Amino acid sequence: MKALILTIAAVVLGGCSPSAPRNTGVYLLLDTSGTYSEELKKAQGIILYTLSKLQPTDSFAVARIDTGSFSEKDIIAKATFDDRPSAANTQKRAFAEAIKSFVDTSQPATHTDITGGVLQAIEFLNEKGSGRKAILIFSDLQEDLAKGYVRDNVPLDLKGFEVVALNVSKLRSDNYDPREYLARVEAWRERVEKNGGRWRMINDLERLDGLL
Fold first, then answer.
1. Which of 143, 185, 192 is closest to 166 using CA atoms?
2. How far is residue 41's CA from residue 76's CA, in Å, rounded to a whole number?
3. What is the pLDDT of residues 148-172, one digit of tens each?
């Protein structure tokens, strides 16, 4: 009898435990260095697609990658969408306008601190407490740090995160030696997976069905 009572109590307590959050958090990093700034119109399309897929209570932020990206000042737009559809739609329109303004006026960055941007994304999404966390990186994945910025061996706690590289274009030097491109992609894949994350790459921007 005692064992039966304990079993029933365990079932009841288990049923009362809070369920894991089901909302989604997305943080998109935009590479604006050099000629890659010319690709921002493509990024704008990805952002609009993402906005169309996100639901009430989901969170979304878009930030640029520049000289030092471990900073909130690089966030172009951010929102946690209201559970009222009309309010959420208003938030999405304001978000899209902020992105359009940025794309129309953006100037090329002189350096590319991808690691700093990923660190900021981790911090943002952890604070939101999202059930599903995705970091999208719109970049050629070539990190170029300014003097004095240290990113070697910086730990990236990516457990529970999905990292998706988008539009990983080839550099001019990659045409001469494709191994450079392959090594760059492989290095980021290894880094993400070594730190507990899941890695994907999407280069065909006409097929974004499985992005979220």
1. 185
2. 15
3. 887 887 889 999 999 999 999 887 7
